[in-house]
Design brief:
Layout lengths: L2 H57 L7 H9 L5 E3 L2 E3 L5 E6 L4 E4 L13 H7 L5 E5 L8 E11 L2 E11 L4 H48 L12 H48 L5 H32 L8 E4 H11 L1 H6 L3 E5 L5 E4 L1 H18 L5 E9 L2 E9 L31 H11 L3 E7 L2 E8 L1
Parallel strand pairs: 9-11
Antiparallel strand pairs: 1-2, 3-4, 3-7, 5-6, 6-7, 8-10, 11-12, 12-14, 13-14
């Protein structure tokens, strides 16, 4: 199981448990909260009615004036109100009044007049100077049938002479409780879903960042040239920097060891030739022979210089992970410049040059490296092209790439040599002199092409050899 999935599962567990406990706690608090608010309203209503009815109750005229008719008319009212989207078409309060003995003397429902309510808490406690309230079920087995009753004392000079009770069934509150619970569940589910989405995105981002680092490390271990992943601050940027620093240190050590070994191996031959010629020059010999040994020393020292310079250039390009600049380079002008620089060699061998490159054709990359790579290819082709031979350069756009073809008239490359042409220090003897080059030119070309994200191939074609480059 990947790290991202594990992080996401832990996040899901955390969000799920948090959402469950929070929603469960809030849901449990909705019902008592609504009832407490309703009870507070009943307290105010009961005390208001106690003040309104006090004088008539004290005078004993409650049933002799309009109060029974008023309360009956109140019970029959249809408010036709819409409260927060819910309709209210009837009043739900019941109001009754008991005397000092707990006997009902007035009831808005008209069903309990004359009954003894002295044992009900709303009457019993209020007559004794306490806060009187109760919740009683109309149907014993139905919790939804409970009714809240709140009593308020009717006082005469500080003495309690009666009780006014205001009652309200909890069933009238249930639609509001249900709607609140539904909304809360919907909002809670939405927040949980949003949290899971954010958690998924966070897990995906962490996994993607780790995958980029993993891919980079794998590519480095396979010897491929890749750029270090870029992050905007934070621990990932520090980790990427640490990995890149470690790669540089490890590769640098191995790179130096490998190049010291190859350089000493390649320098053995010219050094031995120089030393042998120097020893022979210490003895007497004819002038012609003396001149030949001096020429040998000169040619071998030039070879050593070329070897060291090209090896340094190759080492520099191999250590780079990306281009330092990306600019548009006009290919036709670049090839014209390279051919002019080698004009003397071309004229001396009377070579025929054909060019098929559009003037507006552009390469995208580092101009200096492209000039060196194409120059190496051109020199290699000129070395193997016979006198009066043909050199043809063509280029065309192929989608997002430019395909460059360099054909030179020459003998076919042996099959055993084809897969090794871009191998470091591998070289074929030149047709004219029989001498080999440093064997670093084509290897340098391959490195430059790979650094630009292109492809490079050499093959035999009818009448000669063709090199194909595909560059951005």
């Amino acid at each position: 199981m990947s790290l991202g999935i594990r992080i996401f599962l832990v996040y899901v567990l955390f969000i799920g448990l948090t959402g469950y406990f929070v929603l469960n706690t809030v849901m449990e608090e909705i019902r008592p909260g609504v009832r407490q608010s309703t009870e507070e309203t009943l307290v105010d209503t009961a005390n208001l009615m106690a003040e309104i009815l006090r004088d008539d109750f004290k005078a004993g005229t409650l049933n002799q004036n309009r109060w029974p008719q008023l309360l009956k008319a109140y019970g029959e009212r249809q408010p036709a109100a819409t409260i927060w989207g819910l309709p209210k078409n009837q009043v739900s309060h019941r109001i009754y009044v008991t005397d000092a003995k707990g006997i009902v003397v007035l009831d808005s429902s008209g069903v309990a007049v004359g009954e003894d309510y002295s044992r009900w808490n709303d009457v019993y406690l209020t007559l004794r100077g306490h806060y009187g309230a109760r919740s009683t079920r109309s149907v014993a087995d139905d919790p939804a049938s409970s009714v809240m009753h709140v009593g308020a004392p009717i006082r005469d000079n500080g003495r309690i002479i009666g009780v006014v009770t205001v009652a309200k069934p909890n069933s009238s509150l249930q639609p509001y409780i249900d709607r609140t619970e539904r909304r809360l569940l919907a909002y809670g589910a939405g927040l949980v879903a949003l949290g899971l989405l954010l958690g998924g995105l966070l897990s995906w981002w962490l996994s993607a960042a780790l995958r980029r680092l993993t891919s980079y490390a794998q590519a480095v271990s396979q010897g491929r040239r890749v750029e270090v992943p870029h992050y905007r601050g934070g621990e990932f940027e520090q980790l990427a920097g640490a990995v890149e620093h470690m790669r540089t240190q490890l590769e640098g050590k191995a790179y130096v060891e490998r190049y010291v070994h190859t350089l000493t191996h390649e320098l053995k031959s010219p050094l031995a030739a120089i030393r042998g010629a120097a020893e022979l020059l210490q003895s007497d010999m004819p002038a012609a022979q003396h001149q030949r040994f001096v020429s040998n020393i000169d040619s071998e020292s030039v070879r050593m210089q070329q070897l060291i310079e090209r090896l340094l250039n190759l080492a520099q390009i191999e250590q780079r992970q990306g281009l330092e600049e990306k600019i548009a380079v006009p290919l036709a002008a670049l090839m014209e410049e390279l051919l002019e620089a080698r004009g003397g060699w071309i004229e001396s061998r009377q070579l025929r040059i054909e060019r098929h490159i559009a003037a507006d054709l552009m390469l995208t990359g580092e101009a200096f490296l492209l000039r060196q790579a194409l120059g190496n290819l051109l020199e290699n082709a000129l070395d193997f092209t016979p006198v009066n031979g043909l050199l043809r350069i063509s280029a065309e756009r192929m989608g997002s790439c430019v395909e460059i073809r360099l054909f030179n008239q020459a003998e076919a490359i042996p099959d055993y040599a084809l897969p090794r042409l871009s191998e470091r220090f591998y070289s074929l003897p030149r047709p004219d002199s029989g001498r080999k080059s440093t064997g670093l030119g084509l290897n340098f070309v391959e490195e430059v092409v790979q650094l630009h994200g292109g492809a490079f191939s050499i093959g035999n074609v009818e009448g000669g050899v063709e090199v194909v480059l595909r560059l951005p």
